[in-house]
Write a structure and sequence with these properties.
Strand 2 and strand 3 form a beta hairpin. With about 260 residues, this protein is mostly beta strands.
């Protein structure tokens, strides 16, 4: 008797968010600056367990603007992040370790500026300027369905489409891409701490073979506190160390209250 083979189904989810903050002061003797901030975002995940390959993919898009009294509209948040992961199930070691391939892309939508100069703002980034791609071939280690790690040999490309910004990101002006080869580790945690509190943590390390003592570090922490079905509070903290761009650690912290809506 022949049995029909079923095609593995995708497990997908997508969620949008929007947050709005307004502060107004008029003849307020205690001081204060009127401001208006708006940010929108979209996150999506797709996974499938196949007979030979498991796939876990996710994408994050976010953009925000802020307007303060006396200042022009400025960018407050700008993220393009896509992560693709493939794990082979034909070769399984110790019940948790799979051969794997991971691809990571990061960039931004619009130009960013450095406002710390006394003169006019200095443009320091743009769409695909820079964009980083990291492909890691190695192993994937799963732990209790809420944490996993990718470890292996990696290729990293830094893409800068704007020629005027290439020197800032150590890309030759006559080229578009700077290539590096090294070792990479990506650790991801996706875990519910409490019934209404969720933690998403990503730590990414890349050490180039020609600069092993100067690894790149990216740590992203997102804590989501759900008030009800549509209202949430997000606390996000990002730390980044890339000595090709800056000698010290770059940090970003966001605290937002907004609405969320399920798309899928």
């Amino acid at each position: 008797m022949a049995f029909a083979q079923t095609t593995p189904q995708w497990d997908t989810s997508a969620r949008g968010k929007a947050s709005f903050t307004q502060a107004g002061f008029y003849r307020w003797h205690d001081g204060g600056v009127s401001s208006l901030a708006l940010s929108v975002g979209l996150t999506g995940k797709a996974g499938r367990e196949g007979s030979r390959w498991n796939q876990e993919h996710e994408a994050q898009l976010a953009y925000g603007l802020v307007k303060q009294n006396g200042l022009d509209v400025r960018k407050a948040e700008d993220v393009i992040h896509v992560h693709l992961s493939f794990s082979n199930t034909d070769h399984l070691f110790l019940g948790k370790i799979h051969p794997s391939l991971a691809v990571d892309l990061r960039s931004q939508f619009s130009s960013g500026y450095d406002y710390s100069k006394a003169t006019a703002p200095v443009r320091i980034s743009g769409f695909l300027a820079p964009a980083t791609f990291v492909e890691t071939l190695g192993i994937n280690v799963d732990q209790k369905n809420y944490a996993n790690a990718h470890l292996g040999i990696a290729a990293k490309q830094t893409l800068v489409t704007d020629q005027s910004l290439r020197s800032r990101y150590k890309v030759r002006e006559s080229s578009v891409i700077r290539n590096e080869l090294g070792l990479s580790t990506i650790i991801k945690v996706d875990h519910g701490i409490f019934p209404n509190v969720h933690l998403d943590q990503t730590i990414q390390l890349f050490a180039s073979f020609n600069q092993p003592n100067r690894p790149d570090l990216l740590s992203e922490t997102l804590i989501t506190m759900t008030v009800n079905r549509w209202l949430h509070v997000n606390l996000e903290y990002v730390a980044k160390l890339d000595r090709d761009v800056a000698r010290s650690i770059q940090m970003k912290e966001l605290l937002s209250l907004g609405i969320s809506f399920v798309l899928i």
